[in-house]
Amino acid sequence: MTCGDEHNELKWSRAAAEEAEAVASIKCSGHGRASLDGLPIEGKPACQCNSCYSGDDCSVLLPNCAVDSGSGNPLFLEPYWMKNAASSAMVVSGWHRMGYSYEDGSYISKELEKVIRRLHEVVGNANTKGKYILFGAGSTQLLNAAIVGLSPTPPQNYTGNHSFSPANVVASVPFYQVYKQQTDIYNSLSFKWKGDASLWKNNSDSTENFIEFVTSPNNPDGRIMEPVLKGSSVKTIYDYAYYWPHFTGISSPVDTELMIFTISKLTGHAGSRFGWAFVKDRALYERMENYLDVNSIGSSHDTQLRALVLLKSVLKDKARGLFEFGHGAMRKRWVTLNKSVSKSRRFSLQKLRPRYCSFFKKVTHPSPAYGWLKCERKEDRDCPAVLRAAGVMGRNGSVFHASNKYVRLSLIRSQDDFDLLLRKIDALVSQE
Amino acid sequence: MTCGDEHNELKWSRAAAEEAEAVASIKCSGHGRASLDGLPIEGKPACQCNSCYSGDDCSVLLPNCAVDSGSGNPLFLEPYWMKNAASSAMVVSGWHRMGYSYEDGSYISKELEKVIRRLHEVVGNANTKGKYILFGAGSTQLLNAAIVGLSPTPPQNYTGNHSFSPANVVASVPFYQVYKQQTDIYNSLSFKWKGDASLWKNNSDSTENFIEFVTSPNNPDGRIMEPVLKGSSVKTIYDYAYYWPHFTGISSPVDTELMIFTISKLTGHAGSRFGWAFVKDRALYERMENYLDVNSIGSSHDTQLRALVLLKSVLKDKARGLFEFGHGAMRKRWVTLNKSVSKSRRFSLQKLRPRYCSFFKKVTHPSPAYGWLKCERKEDRDCPAVLRAAGVMGRNGSVFHASNKYVRLSLIRSQDDFDLLLRKIDALVSQE
C-alpha cells in the first residue's frame, strides 16, 4: 500500500474537517462539549459545560447549584449523535445552494421531502399520502402559518362593525403557551385568543369560527388528546411534536387535515429550527405557503441540508437505533422519577397508560417528555416555589394556564440535568 | 516523509468530506452545479443547470429560451466562493448545537455577532457601536419584527372605536413589495398599510403614528434614499440590504435608530435566510426580540454557523477580495447594459451618480443591483409585455407600485443569465 491509496486526497474540505475534528476531540469530562462557534478562551475553542458543571474540562460539579428542569432542550439525544458521528457529519461547500429556491422554484428540498415521508412510513405515526408538505423555522413558524391560513379575511376597509367575526383560537388547559402568544402578538382582526377549549364546548355549532390546537401527546402532561370542539365551523391544528416512539406508543398513523411536526423532539436538534406540516386541503396549503413566503421567504437551505443528513442517518437502520436509544432513555428516566416521587405523599406525577406501539411491535410503558408534578398539600399553593426552595427550577403550571399547584419538569434535557433533578427530588422527598 | 505525516487522519468527517468533494467535482460546463441535496439521476448526484441550459453536463443552450431576469437571486457571487473553497467550507458534527440557545441563554451566536460588527467596521458602512443586535430568517423576518415592534398595542378588549389609531405603514414608490405584503397579511389593528410615503408628507406632524420604510440604495432603482416623513410621530425602518460596496459607493457609515442588513446581497447566500438588525432603543430591541422568539424561537444554529464561516472567510483579506470581485462584476454588467440600451430611443435606464467610496478610497461609478428600465414610447404602456415578447422575463413595475412603463431587470443573477439578458436586449434594440 502506498500513501493515499486507501483514501482519496481531500482538497478544499480538509482544513475545515480537521478543525471540526479538533474541536470535537476536546475533552469535557462528559459534562459538556466544545463547539466550532463557541466562545474561545485565549483564542482556542473551549468546553461549554452543562449547567452546574464548571472548570476548563467541565469536571467540577458546583455545590448547591439549582438544577434547570425548565425548558424542553432535547439534549437527551446528544449521546446518540456522538455515537453516530460518521453518518451524521455534514460537509458544506461555500457555494452550496446560494439561490432562494430549489430546482423546481420552490423553497422545499425534494430530497428532504422524500426522506420525511419515508420516515413517517417507517415509523407508522402519520399517513402522509395525498397531503401537501410545508417546511418552517421549527414547528413554531408553522403554527403561526396555520393560524393565519385558517382565519377569515375581514372585508376591505373594515372598521370594526359586527358583520365580521374573527376566528376564536382555543386549546385545552394545560397547553403550550406559544399558541396564545402567537395569537395575541399581531392584534389581528382575523383571529383572537379565547382560552380554554372546554369553555366553548356548547358554542361550537354556532356561526362563529373556531380554531382549536390539539397537542398529542400533550405538552406538558403527555396525554393523548382529541379535539374538544367539533362541527363545520371548527378547524383543528394538530401539533404532533411528541408523537414519536421516544415519548409514546404509536398505536396507529394519524391522518388529520393539518399535522405539524418538528425535528426538535425527533432527533433533538432544536437549535436547527426545522419543522414540517402536512396539509390536506389545497387552498389552506396555498395560504400557509404564502404566509411562509411573506414571513421569511421559505426555510434555510443549510438547515434543510442538515435535516436531510440527520434523517438519512436515522433511516440507515430503519430508525431502530434512534428510537431504541430515545425510548430507552425516556423510559428509564420516567421509571426512576416515579420511584422517587412514589415515596412521597406531598407530590404526585401524572398517570399514563401503557399503549401498544406498532413501531416496536409490543406494548410500551409510559415514557413522557415531561413530568407534570403536583403539590398535593393544601398549603403548597405555590408548587414552583416549593421546588425552587429545593433547588429545582421547573416551569410554572401557570405558564400552561393551569394552576401553580403544578410544575412541569423537563425530562428530555442532558443526563446531567436529569441526574441532578433526581438527586434534588430524592432529597426533597426524604425530608417528609 | 511517511504516510499520514503531513495531515492528521480524519475520523468521523472523512466520508462526508469525500462525498461533498465528489459532488463538487461533477462537471457542469460552467453552466450549473451539482448539490449534495440535488435530485439524483439514477441514484447519483446530477448537474442542476442554469436556466436555458440543459443536458447531463449543462452544455446545451436551449434555443429560443426566455431569460429569467426577475428575482434578485444573487448568484453573481458564486464564482467568488468557488475560488475561495477552502476558507468557506463548513464541517458540522451531528451533535453540533442541538439546544435552543447558546451559552448565554440567547439565540445569538456571540462569535457571529463579533464578526458582523467587525465587518461593518472594516467596510465602514454602519456604525454599530452602542446598538443591540438581533438575528432573523433573512432580513425578511426582521422587517416583520420591526413593524410589530414599532406599532402601538390597542387597549384590551378593543372593538374598533376611534380612540385608538394603528401605525400607518408607508414607503416611497417604487418600493419592495414585501413591505406591503407583511403589513397586510395579519389584518392587524396595530398597523395598516397606507401606500406611498409622499401622500402623507403634510400629515406627518399630526397625532397619527407613521412607520416609513427607507431602502437605501433603493430596490428597484438603486437611488440613495432619505426619509420622506419626519417628526416625533414617525418611526423609520432603514433597510440597508444593498448598502455594500458591490452596489454603491460607501460615502459614510450609516448611524440610524433601526438598521436592517442581510447576508443575501452581501455574500450571495440568499438560500441561507440570514439577516441582522441593529437597534438603538432598548425597549424596541426587547419588543423585536420577543417577536422573533414567538415567531420562530430565534434563528437556526446551522445557518448562524454558516454565516460565521462565510464572514470569517470574507474578513481574511479585510473583505477586499469579496468586494473587488462583487463591485467589478456589477460595474461591468452595468456598463455593458448601458452601452446596449444607450443605442435605443425606445428604452432608458435610471441615471445614477458616481460616489466617493471610503472602502475603496476612490470615487466609484454606478454598479446597481437592478436595471430599472423604462419604455419611452407612448404606445408601450405595458413595458413588461414588450420585454416578454423579446424573451426577457423581468419584474413588472406594478409589483413595486410604480407603473408598468417600468420593468426591473435583475443584474445580480448568474453570469449566464446576464449574458442571455444582454443578447436579448441587443437584439431588441437592433430592431428599432
Automatic annotation (TrEMBL), chains A, B:
Family annotation (Pfam families): Alliinase_C (PF04864), EGF_alliinase (PF04863)
GO BP annotation list: amino acid metabolic process
Keyword Iron-sulfur part of the UniProt annotation: no
Entries under CDD domains matching the protein: AAT_like
Keywords of this entry: Pyridoxal phosphate
Residues of the Alliinase C-terminal domain: 67-428
Sequence ranges assigned to domain Alliinase EGF-like in this UniProt record: 11-65
Membrane-crossing segments per the record: none
Example of a GO MF term: transaminase activity
Cofactor annotation: pyridoxal 5'-phosphate
Protein family: Belongs to the alliinase family.
Protein name per Swiss-Prot or TrEMBL: Alliinase
Species, as recorded: Stephania cephalantha
